[in-house]
Design brief:
204 residues, alpha/beta, Uracil-DNA Glycosylase, subunit E, five-stranded mixed beta sheet, two-stranded antiparallel sheet
């Protein structure tokens, strides 16, 4: 299955997002084998820094470090994908500022909704950062489901037992980008969340 055949933004209504950095994973994937879906915040401002770029791509590099911190023996993104871990962003364009507009998150969550539906055998969702959490809650609400992740700081709510349609959901911190590794306490918590998702998915 080629992702871009199923997930595409046509009208680009979000004036607050960097449309020139629009990025949907342009990869072939066996959807039935995906057990973990990791959703981070926004696409990188430079599309070449995305998850499925070169080994030196920023998102790929920091994400591999996060999984290695969690004890997952992996050296490249294709190995991670082969293990059953799919990586994507909640918002498909880059951002101008630190904050992402609520309207942008709401609109892009319709694309995320289509993306989530493509993977029927997911056992755990990793929501990396506030934008991913908000987008996921939007998806659930639109489908008539209760709010998945309660309001509150990630520090207070992570570690709770959250589920979406019988699958575990982990609210965590952003692992993709230049900030990963700066705060050691967050690196540890990200590793704990990834490790828990890996155990539930039974991929290691």
């Amino acid at each position: 299955m080629k992702l871009t055949n199923y997930v595409e933004c046509i009208d680009f209504p979000c004036g607050e997002a960097k449309q020139e950095s629009y990025l949907v994973p342009d990869i072939e994937v066996n959807a039935d084998k995906i057990k973990i879906m990791l959703i981070s915040e926004t696409a990188p401002n430079n599309p070449s820094d995305g998850y499925y770029g070169s080994c030196e791509a920023l998102y790929a590099r920091t994400t591999l470090l996060a999984f290695q911190e969690a004890g997952v023996k992996v050296s490249n993104i294709q190995e991670l994908l082969g293990m059953g871990v799919y990586l994507t962003t909640a918002v498909k364009c880059g951002k101008y500022d630190y904050e992402v507009a609520t309207s942008t998150i709401t609109h892009c969550s319709t694309l995320l909704e289509r993306e989530i539906a493509l993977f029927p055998n997911v056992k755990a969702y990793l929501l990396m950062g506030d934008v991913a959490i908000k987008a996921f809650n939007n998806v659930a609400k639109r489908l008539g489901e209760p709010r998945v992740i309660p309001a509150g700081s990630t520090y207070k709510i992570r570690g709770g037992q959250f589920a979406y349609r019988g699958r575990r959901v982990f609210p965590s911190y952003l692992q993709a980008g230049p900030s990963f590794g700066i705060e050691k306490s967050k690196v540890r918590m990200i590793a704990e969340d990834i490790s828990a998702a890996v155990r539930i998915a039974g991929i290691q």
